Amino acid sequence: MDYIAQGFIRSIQLLLAGDPETYSAIFTTLRISSLSIIASLIIGIPLGFLLGYFEFPGKRQVRAVVDTLLALPTVVVGLFVYAFISRRGPLGEMGILFTITGIAVAQTILITPIVVSLTATAVESLDRRLRATLIALGARGRQILVTSLMEARYAVLVAAVTAYGRAISEVGISMMIGGNIKWHTRTITTAIALETGKGDFAVGMALGIVLLTLALVVNSSLTLLKKRS
Amino acid sequence: MPMPPLYQITNLTYRYGEHFELTVPELAIEQGASIGLAGSNGSGKTTLLRLLAFIESPEKGEILFDGVSVTENNGSPKRDVTMLLQEPYLLKRSVFENVAFGLKIRDDRRGLKKRVCDAMELVGLSPKEFARRRWHELSGGEAQRIALASRLVLRPRVLILDEPTASVDQQSARLIKEAIVECRAQFGMSLIIASHDRVWLNSATDEVKRMHEGRIVGTGTENIISGPWDHGANGLYTRMLSDGQALFVTKPPHETAAGVVNPSDVVISVAQPDGISTRNILRGIITHMTMERDSGDILVEVDTGGLSLLSRLTPSAVQSLHLVPGKEVWALFKASAVDWY
Lengths: 229, 341
Hints:
- The structure holds 2 protein chains of 2 kinds.
- Helix content of chain A is 79%, strand content 0%.
- By secondary structure, chain A is an all-alpha fold.
- Chain A has one domain (2-228): MetI-like (MetI-like fold, Orthogonal Bundle), CATH 1.10.3720.
- Chain A is globular and about 70 Å long.
């Protein structure tokens, strides 16, 4: 059991001393997840709004597909994106395999359904009186849509935070698309997987602590937001 | 050329709820009019109001506003009309922003702050105390008053109110009524009000229309009694009231027919009458008394086992019988006094 305790103590030392390798993984994770969350919000919020707000034929089927995509396994996304962006793939010329961009693209595919689905739910659960109130106050077309989205803002933030939590904690895509290249595409999760395999618990634990802290921040903001919405 | 009516409805139908259909073959509301709608829950009042507020569009028929048909493309009349819902919905922002919302989306920001504050004062809420409050930091009555202020600030040509005082405390109800009357006096807006509060409806409006099962069936000062009717003895039909008293009528056209009893046909007695031919002798409590503007007569409202009956009496009759709200009385009318429609 000693090696666990020792690993824990050394992990704190690594974090406090600002170990460059450890911090490289942390910053890589933050860069990738920021890119993927921004992209998924830009794509997902409008789509989710349309899906939740309007009635159209086939809406339920679209909804069922989006909801299924919530459970998308990371390795499956990794597999498909790999197939597309590897040398032999149709998008091979872009040269984004084993890059931060590549991981961000695949993560965007992973988390956009979360943003779409939760935004749609948020918009669907808006109060029925909202539309009547907006019309009664003289709002029209775009004003009704924008104000409705604003009314759902806390629930949309919940969608964003949930999606972000999924992005920072996934390992399959980062490993397959990023290749776990030191100083370049190594993220917190791939580093933990590698260091644990090597038997270096200290680095793994240090990164684990950071990941848990991030998760804690994400979750407490979720709790706060849910209370407000 | 004479001014066209404010609203002109022809052959309007609209399905609401599961089984109901609102049918208005013909209705004109004049410019500057103040109209009341009375009727039980489910009679179609709210649906008619939502159509008049252009929140819903008729399935069939036409609503002309100022003589012009209002369609999606020609939405400008919609901004002349505003409606206060029975249960207010406040936007998730500060009270000030709620009241300012309608002006802001019209891009009408001249003297915004003062106009918002004036509207809040009008409904009896101090801007200093309330303007910065969040939408959830209000009581039900305060929320309804803020919702009213956010409509009054627009100085609408038509203000539509759906049971504005049904779910608020007494003080809020009083302030809401005062604000509406005050605004009408100041800006001359048209009012269309649905309310169960007959007394207020009679005083705040020029004319009350009564609705029943999706139709406009008469004026608000008529008593509506409806089935289902059971075939009883002596060729009469009966219906039990919730307190066990029975209504007697002659020849309803069908089992669930509704009929009208003129308040002048309803007699009030302060002692239980004995040995008279009138079949309907209903014990009840006086709930309201109001003076009818045109005739000077007094309308006495008696609650008899859930059925509210209006009786039209002369002031001297009210005086000599010492009628006051809360007094137990007997309301009498003949079984044949019912007009069916």
